[in-house]
Amino acid sequence: MLLDRQAEFWMGELDPVRSRAEIRARVVAVVEETEDTKTFVLRPNAAWQGHRAGQYSSVEVEVDGVRVRRCYSISSPPGEALVSITVKRVPGGRVSTWLHKHTRSGDILRLGTAAGDFVLPAATPTKLLLLSGGSGITPVMSMLRDLAARDAIHDVVFVHHARSRANVIFGEELSELAARHAGLRLVLCLDDEPSAPRGFEEARFANLVPDFAKRSTFLCGPGPFMDRAERLWENVGASALLERESFAPTTAPARMVSSVEGVRVRLARSDRAVAAKGQGTLLEQLERAGERPAHGCRIGICHSCKCRKQTGTVQNVVTGEVSSEPDQEIQLCISVPRSDLELDL
Is 148 found in the same domain as 177? Predict the structure, then answer.
């Protein structure tokens, strides 16, 4: 074990990208897509096991001395040496702002294993609809690039919603792909067009894509946009053909859930004890106590905060499930303590 750690240290000193334990990637290019969106083109090390079109990866950076992770969809197609993530700068967003301000070619980022079930099936559907809004275009662009690379664009409709043409991420490439592939129909719905409705509007959409209920559809965008689209599919009985990507919690926020008073959380590796009290998940409780456990999405999607609960009881705030058995995997960001705990941290 000591020799492994020493080897890892000297590998990192000689070449920061090399690592047997971590996925590290060197930034080879930064592309400005729009005024608030950048693509970071990365060359990952051998620990990267690839991805499927539509998946995401966690990205870890150090902000003010603290390692922070967030999840971003991969915008490049599978099977290439370079991997791209496309990041929209979110006002107040800790990681997106840091990436936009500080990340340059030559920098090193830590990545997580590609994850997510929002992917194209092995057999490409005969009729396909890609529906996106804003930065939700990122995973479906990976799908379109994958289809183009496999010469599999036969009957694809791509509908994208944006505030204006200047805000269309990948706008130029989308137009070029539509010009090259007769099987691709590109529809841009722009909020600033004369008399255009803002966002998704059912009647306009049904007019633009009359056969939408017969198409295998992949949907990604802001929550209200996706909710409204999903209701349309439900109303016409076509929900089985709709796949939706979501980075939003499906229940009340975890911070509204209170822990049992007087709970003691022991961290086995560091031999420290933390008192959990008040509102918040285990992740929030540990952070308030000065701990810095690994985490990413904070809403139970990316599993970056997963750890082993050795003893004690926790409740999953998403499902309501109670875990009392020893040696169970839990996610810190969606678990609240219901008794004294011992965690493998």
Answer: yes
The first and second tokens of residue 88, run together, are: 């929209």
Per the structure block, which two tokens stand in for 303?
Answer: 């599993």
**Rounded to whole angstroms, how far apart are CA atoms 138 and 174?**
12
Give dist(CA 276, CA 26) in Å, integer: 39
Whether 91 and 178 share a structural domain: no
CATH number of the domain bearing residue 329: 3.10.20.30
Among the listed residues 178, 174, 235, the one whose alpha carbon sits nearest the alpha carbon of residue 203: 235
Place of tokens 């009985």: 237
Provide the whole-model pTM: 0.77
Domain around 320: 254-343
Per-residue pLDDT of 280-302, as tens digits, reads 889 888 888 888 887 777 778 77
CA distance 133 to 218: 12
CA dihedral (176, 182, 186, 187) positive or negative: positive
Query: Please, are residues 103 and 36 in contact by the beta-carbon 8 Å criterion?
Result: no
Helix, coil or strand: residue 81? coil
Number of domains the chain is built from? 3
Shared domain check, 281 and 233 = no
